[in-house]
C-alpha cells in the first residue's frame, strides 16, 4: 500500500510540506512514509482518500473501475497521453 500512496503523491505532485498543511500530520512522518521509514496507518489512508477520492478503490485493493470514476495514477496518465495525441 505504501507504494500506491507514493504513486498518488507523485502523480498529484504533493510535497511533505503540502501534505502537512492539508492533513495536520507532521511532514517528517510523510517523509518517513515516502522513504519506507514507517508503515502506512489508518490516518494516512483517510488523508489520501480525502485528497484523491478517485483513487480510493485502487489504493485499498489495487483494482480500478473507470466506469465508476475509480482509476489509478497510471491509468489516468495513460488516458491523458492518449487524449493528448493528435488523431489527425
Give an overview in words.
- The structure is a single chain.
- It contains 6 helices and no strands.
- It is mostly helical and 88 residues long.
- The longest helix has 12 residues, at 73-84.
- Look at the structure and give the mean pLDDT: 94
Span between N and C termini? 40 Å
Please count the helical segments.
Answer: 6
Estimate what percentage of residues fall within beta strands.
under 5%
Tell me the overall shape.
globular
Described by its quaternary structure, the protein is single chain
From the alpha carbons, calculate the radius of gyration and give it in angstroms.
14 Å
Q: Can you give the helix content as a percent range?
A: 55-70%
Largest sheet: none
Summarize the helix and strand pattern as letters: HHHHHH
